[in-house]
Amino acid sequence: MNYMSLFDADGKRVTSVPCDDDLTDEKKAALEAEGYVEIDEDEWNYYVGNKGAGDNGTGYIRKDGKPVSAPAYVPTAAEQADALATTYEAQVKELDDQIVLAMADGDDDLVTELKEEKAAALKEYQEKLEALNK
Asked: Which residues does UniProt call coiled coil (predicted)?
């Protein structure tokens, strides 16, 4: 069976209509006018994921009239910033916990050392965050 499929500007399949008995010549012509293209079932299987996830694990797109591996996913700046924040929040929390324990033990030298580590971690986080936003 063939399908009339619509692809977006990036080559991702948006939707498909099967070329069955219900698809009249008039309906097919209307779909073609809307940008749909006819593809065979084997090609359709790439776009719906039945032929694996492609070389980058992101599926397949249509390029130059055929299925090709979709580009690798690139996280947005916001997603990268969130991941960075999560990493540094955990690190700072651990340092805060160690500072409290050192204070309870009365180890002023360790408290000072841990506070310096925390300040360095926060500075490093700020620098990496600024680098993401450039």
From this structure: 78-131
